[in-house]
Structures are given as structure tokens and as C-alpha cells.
Amino acid sequence: MKKTGKKLLAAIVVSLNLAALGSEVVYAEPSTQQPAVPPVLETSDTQSYSPLSDIIGWRYKSVDGHVYRRQYNYSKEKWIGEWEAC
Fold this sequence. Notes:
The protein has one helix spanning 2-26, and strands at residues 56-63, 66-73, 78-85. The chain is α+β, with helices and mostly antiparallel strands. Strands 1-2-3 form a three-stranded antiparallel β-sheet, with no helix packed on it. The chain is elongated and about 100 Å long. The chain starts with a helix and ends with a strand.
């Protein structure tokens, strides 16, 4: 009787697993989510874009073995501040 009880229990477990897996497939619904890629917006050729902030960097020079630096605004092509020793 122990063997038949184990077989019955195993059959019940297997059938429950198959039922659980089968219900997922049967009741699956198609996805209605939007695509992850945003739509491409049309732009006219007459529009121009500029950076939000200026591009600023250091310029260096050497005079008599001493190195100096000065900030330079590459966006406006203008110097910022004075030369300072490094």
C-alpha cells in the first residue's frame, strides 16, 4: 500500500505542475506596451543648435623655463582671466 500511495502522490504532483504550466500558456495575453525606442521627431533644416554651456579649457605657455596657464573659452574664442604660474 505504501507503493501505491507514493505513486498516487507523484501522479498528483506531476499533474498539478502540468496544470500550472499549462495555465500560463493558455491564458497568456499579447503585450500592448509601447516600444522602448522613442519616435523620431522631424526637424527643419533652418534650425540650428548651440551647446547649453561654453567649452572652456586651459592654454599653457612657457617663458624662461616657467610654465603659465590661462583659461580660454573655445565657444566664444576669448580669453578668461590672466596668465598664472603653474
